[in-house]
Every structure is written in C-alpha cells, then in structure tokens.
Design brief:
The protein is globular, with a radius of gyration of 23 Å. A six-stranded parallel β-sheet has the order 2-1-3-4-5-6, with helices on both faces. Strands 7-10-11-12-13-14 form a six-stranded parallel β-sheet. The chain has 456 residues and is α/β, with parallel strands linked by helices. It is 32% helix and 21% strand.
Length: 456
C-alpha cells in the first residue's frame, strides 16, 4: 500500500528496518511506529544491514513467543556488532512483561519501549544517548486519534485495530496485565482511519482486538460492534470486511443482523472457544459453557447460512482428564468448524492457571493436540472436496512464493495467513481484485483452480 497519507519532514532520512512478531494486533502497532518515524523524516528499508535503526516489536503471550522474540533480538544484535552507530530498539509485550530483566540480560539493546510508550519513539530517539534504556512508564495508550501507518501488509489488505486491552479474566492469559483493560477506540476515529486505508487501495479490511465483540462495552451508551460494522460497510472502496477474535458469549442478534444485511461484511467469524467441557471452561475462567457455544453456533448458522467458522482450542490445561479431552474431541467433530487452531497449554508465571494442579504432562498434551488435528483434517478434506468443480469468487493475492508460474488467492472463507489459500494455475488476474475461479483440485488445506475469462 502506498502510504500517501503520511506527511513527512524534508531532511536526509535515516533508515529503519523492522521485525514485527506475534498477532495482527501487534502488526498494527508496528505500522504506527513506522508511520510516526516516517513523519519524523525516517525511511523504511527491507535491508537490515543498511539500516541506522533496527526495531523488533515483540510478542510475549506464551513461552515460545518469548523465545522467538529473544532469538530475533540476538540475530539483529549480531548484525550491528561492528556498527556502534546503529541503534537496536525492542518494543512491545516482551518489554512490558519483563522490563528490568531485559535491561539486565540484553546489554546489546539500546532502547526498550513498552506497549504504551511506543508512539513516543521518534522523540526518544532525538534525546542524547544516556544510561536510561527503559521507557515503560506510560499510562494506557488510548489510540484516540487516527494514527499514521506505514503498511506492513500487501497493498490490498489491512488490519484495523478497533480496541486495545482486555477486561476478561481468563486464568491462563497475561494480556490484561500486559495490555491493560479494554479501551475501545472512538467510532469516528476508526471511520477516518478506514477511509484513509480505502483511499490507499485497501480492498479487504480486517477488524482486530483482543475481543472485537466487546467493542464499546466498557462505556454504556457507546456504539457497539454492530454499529461500527454498519459505518464501515457504508464506506466506498472495501470489497470485504472481516471480523476476527470474536467472543463466543458476545454473538448478539444485533451483530448477526448487521452482518446479514451488509454483503461487504463477510459471513466469517473467529470464535476461540478454548475447550468444550464445562469443568475445564470453569477452570479457565471462561464465562460460558458448552451449551452456550452450541447456542451461538446455531444462531450464527441460522442468521448466516453457509457461514465460515474458525476456532481455537487448547489441550493439556491443568486438570484436563482423558474424559475432558474426549468431550472436546467429540465436540469438534460435531460442530464441524471450517478452521481449527490447536495449541497446548503453557504455564505462564503470574497467571492463576500456573498455580492449578494437576499439570498435564507435555507429552500427553501433544498427543491430544495431534488427535484433534487429525479429526479436523478429515472435516476440512471433505469440505474442500465438495468445492471441486464449482466456481467461486477468489481475491487474487499475487505470485506464489513457491512458483512464478502460479498465482495465489483466497476465498471469502479464508483469512490471510491462517486459513489456507487457492493456487491459481491458469488465467489472468489482477492483484487485489475478485475473479471467478473454477476449482479443479483439493489439497489437504488448500484448493487449486483456474480463472474463468470473460466469455467462457
């Protein structure tokens, strides 16, 4: 996407190379950091060896994410070892979570920036270099005004962060402690930001937050997610509007009505249920039970026939017995989700769940995850095979990284990065546009097809 809405100061630019880790919500923060740096006269580069500033925006949700962040930091630290003038900045959740430990253990890093202080990075960089390397004291950042953004996504899609923080109290999750309570962004701010994205060529707008269905709930009388969707659907430019990270207990009739009434809003819902046995849901601190999930799925499918449903589940949570797991496995097979993410539990220090017993052996958690994935593979295989021979609208993404002779695209039921794709073996298509594609083959999680030219 051409960031033509960014106004820059005229000066000889220094260059910044950025690595963004974790979820799309974190990616939006990275785009804001880069947008503010560009406004301050910096230039973004894809070549770390040529950069004056190396930036890592980190995730720290679970142990593997923390390790990935440390590895990325050390990789860039080695790159700047012989260039003392280069500055290495680490931002995001890892800093917010570990603060002083990082300052002590990573002397290679010049600055550590917390999740509420990142908008101040251009000003911080202008300060004289001192021993003060940690900036993690800011209050909850409100995201109240439209933010400058330098895009890190393909030109035809963008994520819109509609809220920050979370007020749920899941026993396994550190996000409320790291990111703070729910803070919904003003509706008019989101509309302005969305208008800018549409004007820059974005065709697929993807709404993200810790819980998108909680939008506006912390302020009684404020517009909720349904009102926001209606406003965004009324804007010119977007072909698809997609909703991620919805809460199973927050699927309201108003939300479903708004989705059903606006063809630009995709009948796609991501509902991370985490488990399906009431005992485990209770221990997880989830404020719903199995019957509530079933009720939500029924209402979605009645209001949005053919809706695509994605979920995430967890194995190995403390106290999960074989009977608990079998309930989850049976539920997954019964519910027939289109897409399923499976993770096994990590005891994160500082969470209530870390004190729960008995802890499930990691080997057993892995075994259960494999069984869930195998069951889901059968569901996906049957569903994809049923599409072979049909013609579907596909959003063309570009040339496949696997072959210059293939294009790739996605159906409306395929979110970027997580849900599979369509390999296009014939025909001519324009990136960012919808094309009719005749599906010819089903792969384990992807599809193959050919663009139908006009007149065929």
């Amino acid at each position: 996407m051409n960031p033509k809405f960014l106004k820059t100061e005229k000066r000889n630019p220094k260059t910044v190379f950025a690595v963004s880790l974790g979820c799309p919500k974190n990616l939006v923060d990275t785009e804001i950091i880069l947008g503010r740096l560009v406004q301050a006269g910096w230039r973004v580069t894809g070549a770390p060896a040529a950069a004056d500033l190396l930036l890592v925006n980190t995730c720290a949700f679970i142990e593997p994410a923390c390790q990935e962040a440390v590895d990325a930091i050390l990789d860039l630290a080695r790159l700047k070892a012989d260039r003392p003038e280069v500055r290495l900045v680490v931002a995001g959740c890892l800093v917010q979570r570990y603060r002083e430990e990082l300052v002590r253990d990573l002397p290679e890093v010049d600055l550590f920036i917390g999740v509420n202080d990142f908008p101040d990075l251009p000003a911080i960089l202008n300060r004289p270099r001192t021993q003060d390397r940690l900036f993690c004291q800011g209050g909850p950042y409100p995201y109240a005004a439209p933010e400058p953004r330098y895009p890190a996504t393909p030109p035809h899609l963008a994520y819109l962060k509609i809220a920050e923080g979370c007020s749920h109290r899941c026993t396994f999750c550190l996000i409320p402690r790291i990111r703070g309570p729910l803070r919904s962004r003003p509706l008019d701010t989101l509309v302005v930001e969305a208008q800018r994205l549409a004007a820059a060529g974005v065709r697929e707008l993807i709404l993200v937050a810790q819980d998108t269905t909680a939008y506006g709930r912390e302020a009684p009388g404020q517009p909720g997610i349904a009102a926001l969707l209606r406003e965004l659907a009324a804007l010119d430019g977007f072909t698809w509007i997609r909703l991620l990270y919805a809460h199973p207990a927050r699927i309201s009739p108003e939300l479903l009505d708004a989705m059903a009434a606006n063809p630009r809003i995709l009948p796609y819902l991501d509902l991370p249920i985490q488990h399906a046995h009431d005992d485990i849901l209770r221990r997880m601190g989830r404020d719903y039970r199995r019957r509530d999930i079933l009720d939500a799925l029924r209402r979605i499918r009645e209001a949005l026939p053919g809706a695509t449903l994605r979920t995430t589940v967890m194995t190995g949570f403390p106290g999960e017995t074989e009977a608990h797991f079998q309930t989850l496995l049976d539920f997954v097979q019964e519910a027939g989700f289109n897409h399923l993410g499976v993770f096994f539990y990590y005891p994160e220090a500082g969470t209530p769940a870390a004190r729960l017993t008995p802890a499930a052996p990691r080997r057993e958690a892995r075994r259960r995850a494999r069984l869930l994935k195998a069951a889901q593979a059968h569901i996906v295989k049957a569903r994809l095979r049923s599409l072979v021979g049909t013609t579907q609208k596909v959003l063309v993404e570009g040339v496949s990284p696997e072959s210059d002779y293939l294009l790739t695209g996605r159906l409306a039921g395929q979110a970027p990065e997580i849900d599979g794709q369509v390999y296009i073996t014939g025909g001519i298509g324009r990136v960012g546009e919808l094309h009719a594609v005749r599906l010819t083959r089903a792969l384990p999680y992807d599809l193959v097809g050919e663009i139908i030219q006009e007149g065929e």
